[in-house]
Amino acid sequence: MSSSVDPGALGAFLRARRQGLTPEEVGLPSGPGHRRVTGLRRTEAAQLANISIEYYTRLEQGRVRASATVLASLVRALRLDDDAQRYVYELAGRADGQTRRRSVREAPRPAIRRLLDRLEGTPAIVLARRLNIVGWNDAAAALYLDFGALPVKERNYLRLMFLHPGFRALHREWEHDARTAVGAVRLEAAGDLHDSALAELVGELSLRDDDFRAWWAQQQLSGRYQGVKHYRHPLVGELALDCDTWNSPDGSGQRLMVLTAEPGTPSADALRILTAWQEPGEAYRPEQHSAR
């Protein structure tokens, strides 16, 4: 068995997903009387996957490695979406090496640096593995904060969402945005089950924030990096910005997140005023901001 495969992690995910489903969602009768378990029973999950209850129990207990055929049955039985499917195949070591080990890059590619420089008035940040913030432009600093003033360890989107009061207060729909960030890191985690830096980050946030600890344990996943983000900025008030991301083609796991406002809207006016106040400079370059 590959050292990157952790049957216990797969079992924990299956258990969490089973407990999050109702009989009605999978086409089963709820039955008379009060159910003593949350979600589906193990027997019901096994029935839907067409496997024995004994085998399914061993899967949840991490005592057996799931075959590709069984995984396909579980995907259908537990109504897993595309992100969750990719996650369970990664956990089971059945992803054919698609993203299991990514090259590590903690600085923006030169082309992305040039793009950041040219996005004047448009907030943009570069997110690397574990949602580490490795690049940004002046507009992003104006919207969020001066990332360069933070120690390198604290330049992490997930960490800021939970532990930085100003960053947290900026998000009008904080719970939604925070849950999405947790789900994104949880989805990425399947690609490297022995990422010590991720374990350190999760451990710190679990100790310091009850919401994070609960949401991480729920094993919800999110592969969405687009949509409308709502902010309440202390200088210009409320903004509704379209968020879009593009993945780097080099396999580094980096992605460029860009925030724009629809022309002619109050948000566009507020963003123009906000970024005009920012002292002009260059996009973040690692050599200009050494670790503090």
TrEMBL record:
Q: Which residues form the HTH cro/C1-type domain?
A: 39-85
Pfam families for the chain: HTH_31, MLTR_LBD
Q: Which PROSITE patterns match?
A: HTH_CROC1
InterPro entries according to UniProt: Cro/C1-type_HTH, Lambda_DNA-bd_dom_sf, MLTR_LBD
Any idea what this protein is called? Answer: Helix-turn-helix domain-containing protein
Instruction: Please report the organism this UniProt entry assigns to the protein.
Output: Dactylosporangium salmoneum
